[in-house]
Design a protein that fits this description.
Length: 325
């Protein structure tokens, strides 16, 4: 016999099944979509993100605008703004690993929870290049390690800030090779590169656009690619694995995330549009300039990628004792 409570429950279930969802009531998007970049304008990766925004705008026939929200520690101001935005698909975050992966392991008072985002799409990844000033007497990673062992603490390695990929790769190099090199943090990649060119620091991990032109001009020397493949622009330079340090691998990557609670159909629609756009001639050219590659994947696959990156870099941060108040 049906009780009054079961009748009420059955009636409610029928209402839910028959009711159209809020998302399917109207197409997406119907107005401007904002992509927040949590860093100052003009970074190399923004070149790709702006090209992507143009492609998405053409596909959806709605504006996709870039909003730079720099500030805080490692892009956390922009990330916090998106974390608290309306989860409707009209505010997205184009983020590197910092705000999504490493910030929680380093900063005591992070103004958001990394779980406040839903993965949308991995855009690209670009390997870091292990680079030295020409005055360093080393033409290989092995020679660099040997020099560092015989001259402890005589070499400085630059980074664009605590917990950035170049900093963490430098820590892996220290731990893996058992050498003493000194970390010197800067406020930007440009500032770090300037002092590397001047010989104020001797070692720096950085991506292709900033390093390759200087290396081709003879102003810097690239010893290895911190990735699983050689670069087309520098095919003679071995990978770190080929150089004897297989765990010295890390790249700059960027991906789109949305506030948690963003409807799954919207997330999947953006993901499909991104994958299509990244195959275009304009985006392929932008990625080649960045030395980057795009691996199409679902939102769930991007989520698993973020989880794996979080585990990897959290362990490095913990082992290195990196903490920022």
């Amino acid at each position: 016999m049906l009780t009054r409570r079961s009748l009420i429950a059955a009636s409610a279930l029928c209402s839910l099944v028959g009711a159209p969802s809020a998302y399917t009531a109207q197409p997406y998007p119907t107005r401007t979509v904002k992509i927040v970049v949590p860093f100052p304008p003009g970074t190399p990766s923004e070149f790709v993100i702006r090209a992507l925004a143009d492609s998405l705008a053409a596909k959806f026939r709605q504006p996709f605008i870039i909003e730079n929200r720099a500030g805080g520690a490692g892009g956390t101001v922009g990330a916090a703004a998106v974390a608290t935005a309306e989860p409707d698909g009209y505010t997205l975050l184009a983020s590197s690993a910092g705000p999504l992966v490493t910030a929680a392991a380093m900063y005591k008072n992070l103004p958001y929870d990394p779980a406040a985002f839903v993965p949308v799409a991995l855009l690209f990844s670009s390997p870091q290049l292990l680079t030295v000033h020409p005055a360093v007497p080393a033409t290989s990673v092995g020679q660099l390690v040997q020099h560092a062992k015989t001259h402890p603490r005589s070499l400085n390695f630059a980074s664009p800030g605590y917990g950035t990929q170049p900093h963490l790769l430098g820590e892996i190099l220290k731990q893996s090779a058992d050498i003493e090199i000194v970390h010197v943090p800067y406020k930007s990649p440009a500032a770090a590169l300037t002092d590397l060119l001047a010989g104020q620091v001797q070692i720096y991990f950085e991506t292709t656009p900033l390093i390759v032109p200087q290396a081709q001009a003879g102003k810097l020397r690239v010893l290895a690619i911190a990735g699983d493949r050689r670069l087309k622009q520098m095919p003679e330079v071995p990978t770190t694995g080929e150089s004897g340090i297989p765990n010295l691998v890390g790249g700059f990557w960027s991906g789109l995330v949305a506030p948690a609670g963003t409807p799954k159909p919207i997330v999947e629609e953006i993901n499909a549009a991104v994958i299509e756009a990244m195959q275009s001639q304009a985006l392929q050219a932008a990625m080649e300039w960045l030395g980057a590659t795009h691996q199409p994947g679902t939102p769930a696959e991007f989520g698993r990628f973020i989880s794996a990156e979080t585990g990897k870099w959290t362990a490095i941060i913990s082992a290195s004792g990196i903490k920022v108040e």
